[in-house]
Design a protein that fits this description.
This protein is of the alpha+beta class and about 150 residues long. The protein has two domains: about 30 residues, no CATH class; about 110 residues, RNA polymerase II/Efflux pump adaptor protein, barrel-sandwich hybrid domain (OB fold (Dihydrolipoamide Acetyltransferase, E2P)), CATH 2.40.50.100. It contains three helices and ten strands. The strands form three sheets. The chain has a four-stranded antiparallel beta sheet, with no helix packed on it. It has a four-stranded antiparallel beta sheet with strand order 7-6-4-9, with no helix packed on it. A hairpin with a 2-residue loop joins strand 1 and strand 2. The relative contact order is 0.17.
């Protein structure tokens, strides 16, 4: 097996690129060599910090949700990709859904922009929107919970 010398300058440049772009991970490959740099996302940090405030502001929503993280909720709708979530079709427009709205399976509930492509996110099942966990124009990660349908 060939030795692999780590280029510290390259790692620093990749880390700087993560900070500048707001990405949570980046991978660089050259031949057989690969370097992957990751960091926690701001969305994860905000979600952890915002959880106590949300609980105080809306105790009914917390009581209705099952114990544990929102990802464990059977009605959790997760992001199928990394991108930017948009809650409305245009800036300042009416959101596709709001907490309390009834949705049908297949109904568009938001859009995720990835690589300049607008991807409609459809409700996987019908029900009532219990909580929207992302804000408009927020960067989202693959698997991040976007909203809860009960």
């Amino acid at each position: 097996m060939a030795s692999f010398d780590i280029d510290g300058d390259l790692v620093r440049k990749l880390a700087d690129l993560l900070r500048e772009t707001g990405l949570s991970e980046i991978e660089f490959a050259e031949g057989e060599k690969r370097i992957r740099v990751t960091r926690p996302t701001a969305a994860q940090t905000v979600a952890v910090q915002a959880a106590p405030m949300a609980a105080a502001a809306a105790p009914v929503a917390v009581a209705a949700a099952p114990a544990g993280r929102p990802a464990n909720h059977p009605g959790a709708v997760t992001s199928p990709m990394v991108g930017t979530a948009y809650l409305a079709a245009e800036p300042g427009g009416t959101p596709y859904v709001r907490p309390g709205d009834l949705v049908k399976a297949g109904q568009t509930i938001m859009i995720i922009e990835a690589m300049k492509v607008m991807n409609p996110i459809k409700a996987p099942r019908g029900g009532t929107v219990a909580e929207v966990l992302v804000s408009d124009a927020q960067p989202v990660e693959f698997g991040e919970v976007l909203l809860i349908i009960e």
